[in-house]
Amino acid sequence: MRYRRLSYRYAEVVSTGATPVPDLWNLRVPARIAEGRWRPPADLYETPSAFIVKAEVPGMADDDFDITLYADGLVIEGVRPWEHFDGETHFHAVGIRYGPFRLEVPLRATIDRDRVAARYECGFLYVTLPKAEVHAP
Predict the structure, then answer these.
(1) Is the dihedral of CA 106, 109, 113, 117 positive or negative?
(2) What pLDDT digit, counting tens, does each position of 86-116 carry?
(3) Domain chopping of the chain, boundaries
(4) pLDDT digit string (tens) for 27-44?
(5) DSSP 119
(6) Is 43 buried (19+), middle (13-18) or exposed (0-12) by CB count in 10 A?
(7) What does the longest C-alpha to C-alpha distance in the chain come to?
(8) What is the domain class of 2-12+37-130 according to CATH?
(9) Sheet of strand 42-46: strand arrangement
């Protein structure tokens, strides 16, 4: 896993999903152009001492993730490669997302940036974001 800490704020990119294309080649149903990146399903939960991001990304390896921590957000990126099969293969359905993905998580609390940890096990990426201790004046 590659992990970077940046001290500047993250400019959130808002994606509205795939863009509908009106009546391509006289189709009756509007076609959609496939989006270049996909967003893996994820949970964000809180314990008394940390926030945890749990992303569902099976079929990956530790080195397949880029994790960037901004002052106000966490960005997880990677690429799930397409499986290659020997011989002639015909797909009847494709429900698994492949290719580049990006998960953006806004952070609304102060994080102890020196203790952030990530682990990948059983198809889930866990990023633990410890809460910073707040000292009363």
Answers:
(1) negative
(2) 888 888 888 888 899 999 999 888 999 999 9
(3) 2-12+37-130
(4) 444 444 455 789 999 999
(5) E
(6) exposed
(7) 69
(8) mainly beta
(9) 42-46, 50-56, 124-130, 117-121
